[in-house]
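Supplementary material to the annual report.
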Amino acid sequence: MATMSSVGQSHLLSPLELRAWRGMLRAHAVLAKALDAQLEEAHNLQLSSYEVLMYLADAEHERMRMCDLASSILLSRSGLTRLVDRLAREGLIERVACDADARGQFAKLTPAGREKLAAARITHLAGVRALFLERFTPEELEMLGGAWDRVIDGAGYSCCKT
Amino acid sequence: MATMSSVGQSHLLSPLELRAWRGMLRAHAVLAKALDAQLEEAHNLQLSSYEVLMYLADAEHERMRMCDLASSILLSRSGLTRLVDRLAREGLIERVACDADARGQFAKLTPAGREKLAAARITHLAGVRALFLERFTPEELEMLGGAWDRVIDGAGYSCCKT
DNA sequence: GTCGTATCGTTGTGCGTGCAACCAGCATGT
DNA sequence: ACATGCTGGTTGCACGCACAACGATACGAC
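Predicted assembly:
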């Protein structure tokens, strides 16, 4: 009778594991939603757009190849094409041909984009601090950083490439 | 001249903070993709579908109200309606009217769904262990569990409720 | 030079999701 | 009993994304 509905408990997660795992899923979901809403509210900017601007700002000459940008922000090439379309339409970035490779395109920050980012960055980083970073001690952050690296290249990283 | 392109560093994240924060974003993305692919590969089941089956299996009588289920798996009500549609079409769950409240619907696990989950659970939990849990020590997991709680209810949790 | 293969970016298409609107049914007050 | 407001689930619609196919260009072998 005990074999009815919940056999196979042998592989289930312990409460400890469950808290750590599901906690991460929920925390990520909640954070992403909160930060995105915050950014949209304050600057009418989506999180994905913010990421593009940020990577561009931190790149040499404020420009990056579509390809590299796509893998930086974990988006498919086609997804990036459209995202760049939208941002270009808003005048925040522009496309620049690549002279070294005629197939290539650069996405390049415009002055408007630079300003937009400067403003958004303040909001966003404040949010990240308030909602995430402040919940950890420096030691914990240190630990996290290392653990993420283990997780990331443990998971094959087989995604991306394209 | 130093005022050219990257002023306002004052609010930027320290390398420590950056590693912890971006690491989480990437880790989550990589994990989600890997686990989803794995589940789809092995059992032709999406992660969101798996979550539904799992919550149902763990619920009393293997059934839950649409509403509760939606907030459990962090999905909008409309999103859940369609997800349940798909799962019902595959015969893994069924809709059952609620006698206490004529508006209500239960999503209920079918025998086929129960079997599907039993198989998928093994795969999925093995994946979670291998890709995530094993990268942390028990102490670290303990710390994480607590931290996630702080993060989650710090972030307002203003999402959900539909 | 030319051919075959790989890579870059774009486009067509389908899918999953959220939001808003909607209807049916509950709950409360009078 | 009836009116009002609220809740649960579904539907129309728009959006963002991935996948596959495509044209253009690069790179290498011959």
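Residues 15-43 of chain A form the longest helix (29 residues).
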